[in-house]
Amino acid sequence: MAVSGNEPEPFSVAIHEAAGRLVIAVRGELDLATAPQLEEALVPRLQDGGSVLLDLRPLEFMDSTGVRVIVAAHHAAQDGGGHLALARCAPDGPVARVLEISGLDTVLNVVDDA
């Protein structure tokens, strides 16, 4: 039996440089299966003192595993002298809601000029 409906966009992590910092844009669904891929791309750069803008706006879904990766990245930036900024998500989107519920939207450096 076929189920009709929209399939989620495949998970991907795209990395490019803009305005002297790395931009890491994440698409698809950030969950237990995909979080290690983001963590591998994000945390070492912050541990080495890098400046990273994390763009979660293209995400369709994020669970608590994604929250854990963002918290780990925040700590890596603090410990390694790096700088983590988060692109502001659409306020009515599912990822913005997770960030709000977790309180990360008040702890992280959230920017509008991604």
Order of helices and strands: EEHEEHEHHE
Shape: globular
Strand fraction equals: 25-35%
Radius of gyration: 14 Å
Major β-sheet annotation: 6 strands, mixed
Alpha-carbon distance between the two ends: 43 Å
Summarize the structure.
By secondary structure, the chain is an alpha/beta fold. 38% of the residues lie in helices and 30% in strands. The chain contains four helices and six strands; from the N terminus they run ββαββαβααβ.
Model description:
By secondary structure, the protein is an alpha/beta fold. The chain contains 4 helices and 6 strands; from the N terminus they run ββαββαβααβ. Strand 2, helix 1 (35-47) and strand 3 (51-55) form a beta-alpha-beta unit. Helix 1 (35-47) runs parallel beside helix 2. The longest helix is centred in the middle third of the chain and has 17 residues, at 64-80. It is globular and about 40 Å long. The model has no long low-confidence stretch (mean pLDDT 91).
Give a quick set of tags describing it.
globular, 6 strands, 114 residues
